[in-house]
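G., before I forget:
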Amino acid sequence: MIQLRSVRKTFGPKVVLDDLNLDVKKGESLVVIGGSGTGKSVMLKCILGLLRPNGGSIKVDGEEVTNLKGKDRDRVMQRFGMLFQGSALFDSLKVWENVAFGLIQGRKMQRPQAREIAIEKLAQVGLAESSGDLFPAELSGGMQKRVALARAIATSPEIIFFDEPTTGLDPIMADVINDLIVECVKKLGATTLSITHDMASARKIADRIAMLHKGKMIWVGSAKDIDHSDNPYVDQFIHGRAQGPISMELRA
Amino acid sequence: MIELLSTIGMVVLLFLIHVGKLAEFTALAVSHVVRPPFFPRLIAKSMLEIGYFSLPVVGLTAIFSGMVVALQSYTGFARFSAEGAVATVVVLTLTRELGPVLAGLMVAGRVGASMAAEIGTMRVTEQIDALTTLSTNPYKYLVTPRLLAGLLTMPLLVLIADIIGVFGGYIVAIYRLGFNPANYLSRTWEYLQTNDVVSGLTKAAVFGFIISLMGCYHGYYSKGGAQGVGQATTNAVVSAAIMILVFNYVITTLFFGK
């Protein structure tokens, strides 16, 4: 469904994605793990067209998306949903307007009808109808994450990206979000690509796991094989050891 | 010597990069004025913010400017017995210069800064990326409504400021300097030409566009968290203020240059 071939992205002299290859199959949940600053977010932004790669090809359902503009990009974007790391809710809009945003702006739906769907999606993530009239700043971090999830699934997209869905949440709330992700995605039958460094979250939502290190995929495999990958990098990462082949670059 | 030249070259290049970026940004934002969908609610909201909520601060600026011009010109002109020109001086200074420029500077501080801060915060919290993923063009949604609102609202605001300013001059002239009210008013109208007001309102429209443009541009390209947003806000106000003063001269030349 999504195919990345030799994708390169550099910021000045710094190479962030170095001939990256990755395949996401239709209907699967792929989780990309990797340390901070290994290029996980940049990869997602390249696929979404928020950043333009310096080279390589990104295909969605066989269609090259790296050079799309205007209407064509909008058409491809309509198939995507995205949950941002910091939730990225529009703080000038009410919660329900946030959830309904893609329906009203992207799908040209009438406000009353969009509101109904928004309330329904909010219920799906465990939020009462009354919370729809609050502003995002009035919600806790966990609730904001739920609203962001509701917004990501509101247009019933075929492909959903999750950017560190559990970062900044307590372990229990993190697990609640993981459950919601699994449940919502199953209901929609969507293809998902998530990036995280939270192993508990990765184990819960992944069908397959890929590990990104220094701009390359160094391991891809089924989620249940992650504990016997025979890859010293993966082992170090999933056990969270400071010692090992991955040395933290403390000086940038 | 080489070092000096390379520094100069670097500064010139940086300047050209910014000019190019700004020109591209402006062209893109303006092109969305004529391309649907439009966002009338957002335009109205920005107009309210720029026009209505700026009224108190701009009104105060105008009334005191009018008062001080009356007082200054009276004491100054008394030296060559030209006190009778006070009414004309007040109305010309306000409509041509002080109305648009002072209102422009005040609104740049009030509205330009808040635009830069709002859009800058949206940038650093990924809300602008979120807009794109929700099939909404950020230029169309964030920038174009503000540019239109600035362009349309500032002339109205300045027209009101002109009236308030003339009223300020009137108060000082009548109650402090002892002018005859009817005489003062007829003097106000006597030498006022359409061009005086039109030039001021043209300035206002251009300044409104500049204020919105600078606020949006600096906010849109802000980066690096709270500090970046602070920097963007400062840049938006400073650059808008400088551009207002430069364009004030340019427009004056176009209207009255001989």
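DSSP finds nine helices and no strands in chain B. Chain B touches chain A through 15 residues (CB under 8 Å).

More on Monday.
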